[in-house]
Amino acid sequence: MGSIEVIDADITTLRVDAIVNAANERLRGGGGVDGAIHRAGGPAVLEDCRRVVPDGARLPTGEAIATTAGDLPARLVVHTVGPVYAAAGDDAPALLRSCYERSLAVAAEEGCRSIAFPSISTGIYGYPVDDASRIAMDVLTAHVDAGQEPSVVTMCCFGEDDRAVYQQALEDLRTG
Ligand code: ADP
Questions:
Q1: For residue 142, how far is its CA from the centre of ligand 1 (angstroms)?
Q2: Residue of the CA atom closest to atom 18 of ligand 1
Q3: Which whole number is the average pLDDT over 135-149?
Q4: Topology given in CATH for the domain delimited by 3-175
Q5: Where do the domains of the chain lie?
Q6: What is the pTM of this model?
Q7: Where is each Macro domain found (predicted)?
Q8: What is the ipTM of this complex?
């Protein structure tokens, strides 16, 4: 039986099979959680990013791809590109949904049983956290309820305010 937990933590500290990175399409690191993951993971993460997305290429928004986790306690990093809220317009919800779905699918292909997500797109990319939390928890509960791997799912928020929002979204879904 699977599980979903919503926590307030630094995702780089989690000992899970896969942590998800809210990356950008060039996959060369950046600010926010992306910067934290590259700092903690070390040069091996960037080196593997260069292999999976060569110079001049890009990972499309809504897609996901796995790399080594370098020095992180996780086994691998699944990089996904969230929508820039202001630029994505009406496509934003479907693209954000795709980030969660594709990350789960890539982790499953890699044999992962546990996975942790940050709050994709709600930082620099400007997605309102209320709306983003409902989409995230909708995908994650459907995945776990279907009995699919990775079956141990952590929503890793950064700060108590975000944790409370995602927890509420989860409870709203559970109580219908
Ligand atoms: P995006 O560009 O997709 O908006 P950001 O990294 O700017 O990505 O923000 C996504 C979320 O990640 C924000 O809620 C931010 O507070 C959070 N975040 C930043 N650092 C960490 C970290 N070390 N662990 C978990 N979440 C983090």
A1: 24
A2: 33
A3: 98
A4: Leucine Aminopeptidase, subunit E; domain 1 (3.40.220)
A5: 3-175
A6: 0.98
A7: 1-174
A8: 0.99
